[in-house]
Amino acid sequence: MTTVRLPLFPLNSVLFPGLVLPLNIFEERYRAMMRELLKVPDEEQRQFAVVAIRDGREVAPSAPGLPDQTAQPAQGPAAGFGDDPLRAFHEVGCVADAATIREREDGGFEVLATGTTRVRLRSVDASGPFLTAELEPLEEKPGEEAGALAEGVLRAFRSYQKRLAGARERSLSSGTELPDDPSVVSYLVAAAAVLDTPTKQRLLEADDTASRLRDELTVLRAETAIIRNLPSLPATELTRGTTSLN
């Protein structure tokens, strides 16, 4: 089994391959991570892994709170994730390639990264200034009938788009031609659909592209039916996630 070790960035959201991820970095553990990534030569990839939080807090508490107003909040790279960080995170995540890391005057960072490949979380190390993880890269297998399923998902997605956009023939793609590669379609739709984290995580973990597309077809049809009477829901950007405040 081939593994890689990368800095680990837990979020309350799911990152998919191809999705653009803006980050506003202000916690010291993630500032330290970005300072370390900036040491990587410009010609090399500045990579870290993103995993969705199963049980924990994206931003560590910074002041005493309920039930004990005198108890000091936990400090360190695993703060907010309990005694065993591995159990706090979903098992499958995504490698992110930081194309831009800009340091602000206050010492924080503005980061723009893109999801690249799926990985399985094998272990978490909290001994340094930020979390690192041993990760197993996951192969993306096509599965059976992925091409035909992708066509069906795109049709269902366009119908879903129009419902989200208020049934005014306004597309979320803003005139951009949608891809025809089944795996790209599966990730793009999973990222763009307005779904809860457990559903998005399930799509990320799918055994192969065809399985993900089948699941998406079911989800899109159900979601389209639900929002038929809710035409005021806002459209979302296809390949860009909301800025995460670490």
UniProtKB/TrEMBL annotation:
Keyword hit for Protease: yes
PROSITE patterns: LON_N
Keyword list, A-Z: Hydrolase, Protease
GO molecular function terms attached to this record: peptidase activity
Residue ranges annotated for the Lon N-terminal domain, each copy included: 6-224
Family annotation (SMART domains): LON (SM00464)
Region (Disordered): 59-82
Single GO biological process annotation from the record: proteolysis
Keyword hit for Protease: yes
Gene3D superfamilies registered for this protein in UniProt: 1.20.58.1480, LON domain-like (2.30.130.40)
Amino acid composition bias (Low complexity), ranges on this chain: 67-82
InterPro entries attached to this UniProt entry: Lon_prtase_N, Lon_prtase_N_sf, PUA-like_sf
PANTHER family reported for this sequence: ATP-DEPENDENT PROTEASE LA (LON) DOMAIN PROTEIN
Protein name, per record: ATP-dependent protease
